[in-house]
Amino acid sequence: MADWQTGRMRRVAIVVQPGIRSFDLAVITEVWGPDRSRTGVPGFELRRCALEPGPIPLPGGLTLTPDRGLDWLATADLVVVPALDEPADPTPAPVLAALREAHGRGVPVAALCAGAFILAEAGLLEGRRAVTHWWLAPQLAARYPGIVVEDAPLYVEDGGLWTSAGVASGIDLCLHLVREAHGAEAAAAIARSMVTGPFRTGDHAQYLDRPVPAADRTAEALAAVRARALRSLHEPLSVGTMAGWAGMSPRSFARHFAAATGTTPHRWLLGHRLNAARKLLERTDHPVPEVARRAGFASEVTFRQHFTAHVGLGPRAYRAASCAPAAAPNPPDSVRKGS
């Protein structure tokens, strides 16, 4: 299990190369760079890792000086990949190889915006779900037909590989990674210092074809309901219950919820319950009935049916596969490949 999954993520590597987007670089640096220990945020070691030493040109006349080589990725707990300003530009083969090696060691790799093209070029996204800016999604799908490209979510994870949509969703993904590793309070403290919202779920729609709800109170109420539901996944939840939290009728709530997230409350809950179950199977030895209960399924049978339909494996088979050692021989201190 990679360090980030057990709350010990400290060493963060930015993969830098000529032409990376300055905004993405700034987001990563702002989340993991400052010392916020006085607010209860753990200290991070953030390094800019490049193929070669020396100044790197960035768009807009800026330059960046890396402080580590690609070999530092071997010591990182998390690797973050900014997008190139021109997504079609190639990435040097040694950089792609370093990303493959990091992922092979079980280190989570996160790409912001068009950084998904870099992971795709490395062959890491084949057969996996991925997201990029909605404008670039058709281009990514056409260039790499083996990738399941989604154009709605803000960010998605598949097999330890994280991708995010455009621009501001990179902030959401970075804060989510902090939240997953160190808890909601650490992520909220960072968000406060950045004067940004602390919580947008990955399935929040990138953009809407229909007008957004006029009242800010509605959007805030829906966000609060989603946050409360995520804390209460183990409890019986219905659309009526969630609508009551928002102070709406079930019908009005379902309409506003779909407008904000692009999906129904039932499908949203099911997706998050399945994700919670996956984590429990990967990270605990709870029996399958207990996993089903903690993830909020009414029965073990219902859980098995939904899990098998969604994942393609039964819960026990999935646990066995996720706990199996990596096939490639490694020294004894190697980390098993993350699920």
UniProtKB/TrEMBL annotation:
<feature type="domain" description="HTH araC/xylS-type">
    <location>
        <begin position="223"/>
        <end position="321"/>
    </location>
</feature>
<keyword id="KW-0804">Transcription</keyword>
<dbReference type="InterPro" id="IPR052158">
    <property type="entry name" value="INH-QAR"/>
</dbReference>
<protein>
    <submittedName>
        <fullName>AraC family transcriptional regulator</fullName>
    </submittedName>
</protein>
<dbReference type="InterPro" id="IPR018060">
    <property type="entry name" value="HTH_AraC"/>
</dbReference>
<dbReference type="InterPro" id="IPR029062">
    <property type="entry name" value="Class_I_gatase-like"/>
</dbReference>
<dbReference type="Pfam" id="PF12833">
    <property type="entry name" value="HTH_18"/>
</dbReference>
<dbReference type="InterPro" id="IPR002818">
    <property type="entry name" value="DJ-1/PfpI"/>
</dbReference>
<keyword id="KW-0805">Transcription regulation</keyword>
<dbReference type="Pfam" id="PF01965">
    <property type="entry name" value="DJ-1_PfpI"/>
</dbReference>
<dbReference type="InterPro" id="IPR009057">
    <property type="entry name" value="Homeodomain-like_sf"/>
</dbReference>
